[in-house]
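Quick one, probably user error.
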């Protein structure tokens, strides 16, 4: 096991803190770290894709599980796979797709570990049908505060606290996942351009759930009559009849563009103020909107290119400046569309340089005590952390979201106040009680848990 002292941040590169990082090679080494933890405790970390401070532990220990990445046998008859927590969804997809299976839930990036997907209870593009990631876990191996490994099953209090529990109930070491059968490696994709937010919401609901996967890019720099305009992308798994004659049954995509993770500005450190000013962001969004088709159906794309298109793009974080980026994701229920309208108008009126903004629909809530997804609309956007007054502005949005019965995503948060989190998550007291009973000494801690009093 390797050990070093490092400064760590989330993917957004805000608020770096220093911790001792352990890289175990097996379960027993991971258990030894938990048993020998110091007074600041320990938190698990995967590929570091959480934008905020959920996988940081200032002055304590961080258990890097990226080396625990074994994929066990795939039971093709039952449609299940057993894998270590450090396996990425990208790698799982590469292994499973040629066998005619998919991971149960795929978010917008494949660079998330199975352990991170469970700890965040990640929703995918078809949440209305499939729910979040943990709903498809039939068992998990959890390293608890006493240094023991327990098998935890769905329907138990410990499972519900661990799903979306941000690593604060223990370290997920492995899981058994129920898979989704597919007959080709292609997606049939429809794209539709919407002139404003009302039009975009109508496009979402017009087709029902005939195409199960759906998300929209929203232009948060457009104002006036075009406020909230966007591009809706929907998809379904292509059948063999839809496939071109020359296409292989499960051929993976040959993605073009920069190598994954390569900086958009190679050799150049992040600029102090970044390059994303209001004018530049508005121009980028105008080009993207005008360059999309008004309506297109039946376009065939390889599965990885549909779900994880952004993973093939250059690393855009240097554009946000040395302060990093703040990812803000919230959800409000159906019937609260006016709150969504007000938030979009506030962002547009402020001329915030938002280039990335994703709108989704969620279905039934998941059983996790701190799971994020609930029936309604979810909007996710990135903003430069150095924007003047950003903290106060987002505090105001928090209040509006909370007043509408909505919530901000804890797994992506880097700045929310503890009283706001308590107002948004009604089962937080239940989570705290269970955590205090299972881990009275506070073995598992993170910068986020201290900041929000989780």
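Nope, works fine. Designed sequence:
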């Amino acid at each position: 096991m390797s050990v070093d002292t490092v400064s760590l941040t989330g993917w957004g590169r805000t608020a770096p803190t220093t911790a001792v990082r352990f890289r175990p090679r097996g379960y027993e080494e991971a258990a030894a770290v938990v048993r020998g933890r110091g007074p600041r405790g320990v938190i698990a970390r995967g590929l570091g894709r959480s934008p905020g401070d959920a996988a940081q532990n200032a002055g304590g220990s961080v258990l890097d599980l990226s080396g625990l990445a074994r994929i066990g046998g795939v039971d093709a008859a039952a449609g299940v796979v057993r894998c270590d927590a450090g396996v990425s969804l990208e790698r799982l997809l590469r292994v499973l797709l040629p066998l005619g299976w998919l991971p149960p839930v795929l978010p917008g990036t494949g660079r998330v570990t199975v352990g991170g997907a469970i700890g965040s209870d990640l929703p995918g593009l078809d949440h209305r049908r499939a729910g979040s990631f943990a709903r498809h876990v039939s068992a998990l191996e959890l390293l608890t505060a006493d240094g023991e490994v327990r098998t935890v099953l769905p329907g138990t209090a410990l499972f519900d606290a661990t799903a979306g529990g941000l690593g604060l109930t223990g370290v997920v070491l492995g899981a058994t996942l129920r898979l989704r059968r597919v007959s080709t490696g292609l997606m049939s994709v429809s794209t539709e351009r919407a002139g404003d937010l009302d039009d975009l919401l109508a496009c979402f609901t017009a087709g029902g759930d005939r195409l199960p996967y759906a998300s929209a890019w929203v232009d948060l720099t457009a104002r006036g009559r075009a406020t909230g305009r966007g591009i809706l992308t929907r998809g379904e798994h292509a059948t063999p009849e839809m496939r071109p004659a020359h296409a292989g049954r499960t051929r993976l995509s040959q993605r073009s563009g920069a190598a994954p993770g390569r900086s958009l500005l190679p050799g150049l450190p992040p600029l102090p103020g970044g390059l994303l000013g209001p004018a530049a962001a508005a121009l980028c969004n105008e080009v993207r909107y005008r360059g999309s088709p008004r309506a297109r159906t039946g376009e065939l794309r390889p599965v990885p290119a549909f779900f994880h298109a952004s993973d093939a793009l250059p690393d855009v974080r240097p554009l946000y400046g040395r302060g990093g980026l703040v990812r803000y994701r919230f959800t409000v229920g159906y019937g609260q569309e006016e709150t969504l309208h007000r938030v979009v108008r506030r962002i547009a009126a402020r001329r915030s340089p938002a280039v990335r903004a994703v709108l989704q629909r969620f279905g039934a809530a998941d059983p996790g005590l701190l799971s994020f997804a609930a029936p309604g609309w979810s909007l996710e956007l990135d903003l430069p952390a150095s924007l003047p007054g950003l903290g106060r502005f987002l505090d105001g949005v928090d209040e509006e979201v909370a007043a509408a019965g909505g919530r901000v995503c804890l797994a992506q948060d880097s700045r929310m106040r503890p009283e706001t989190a308590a107002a948004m998550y009604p089962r937080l007291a239940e989570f705290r009680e269970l955590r205090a009973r299972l881990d009275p000494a506070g073995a598992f801690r993170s910068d986020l848990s201290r900041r929000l009093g989780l």
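The first strand starts at residue 2 and ends at 8.
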